[in-house]
């Protein structure tokens, strides 16, 4: 079914975004003066990997377009500070993201890539619920993702992208095979000029004990000025999830960004909790400010801070029937990230 664009749906796009390595987005053949207009749109696994709007360094020196094997490792940590749940009690969350992209390029600009991702969400409920929502509905959640992005330039102006993905998300103590979801994303991007790329995409993803999601996507990478860019993407630094960001690069070392992103996590519960073998879900909209420091062509450090809005918690039984839903108040967060390319 085609679902409305809500927190759950937009969060599903995270599956595809997490699976795409930045090395897969080398631009099509253009002259050196237009290299800085290359595409690093939302499909880049994290916006902190943006190659920059300043005149680019030679691509081989920066590890793009080279032949042979490559490895990109990303890790990030985020703390979402305590906020009140409408049904009583408080919630605080610690998150960890790790991703490794292993690629092999038999030809320039034609990388073959496998992406492995791990996500940890440590939920800390204070257990003081006064309403119907349980005091501690779940604890820690682990997610593993495997993706095989395929990037195909078909002309000097068009490229195609396909991203089949498999993920499992489950609470501590739950069987990981019970939390499997799978699907894929297909999109295309058109180079309007040296400053603008835009294109459509569509994704299909199964959901744990729910109907598959079918969702449209718009890919945008728009260089508004020499050092300013507007783009859809996964997020900044330690943030995750699809969104839109305005980026400013005053020099080759630093990038500042502001924007918003959605995040959604749906997972299988263990068989000992308040909903044995059921399904939990968290979703929200984050407004983010961040900075990235490019230490070298191989290493980057990022810091981000912001506020999470429209936070929602859902608890369902083992068949996906809703038991209870509660909102939680806006929550500040702070994150750190690191990227290494070999």
Looking at this protein, list some descriptive labels:
342 residues, mainly beta, Porin, 14-stranded antiparallel barrel, 1 helix, 16 strands, 57% strand, globular
Structure commentary:
With 342 residues, the protein is mostly beta strands. The chain has one domain: Porin. 4% of the residues lie in helices and 57% in strands. The protein has a 14-stranded antiparallel β-barrel. The longest helix is centred in the N-terminal third of the chain and has 12 residues, at 7-18. It is globular. The chain starts with 6 loop residues before the first helix and ends with a strand. Residues 1-64 and 236-240 have low confidence and may be disordered.
In short:
The chain is mainly beta and 342 residues long. The protein has one helix at residues 7-18, and strands at residues 68-84, 90-105, 112-125, 140-147, 150-153, 158-171, 180-193, 196-207, 210-225, 228-233, 243-248, 254-268, 279-294, 299-316, 322-328, 331-341. The chain contains one helix and 16 strands.
Number of helices: 1
* Sheet having the most strands: 14 strands, antiparallel, barrel
Helix fraction, binned, reads: under 10%
CATH superfamily: monomeric porin ompg
CATH class annotation = Mainly Beta
- Strands of the biggest beta sheet: in what spatial order? 1-2-3-4-6-7-8-9-10-11-12-13-14-16
Beta strand count: 16
Estimate the mean pLDDT confidence: 80
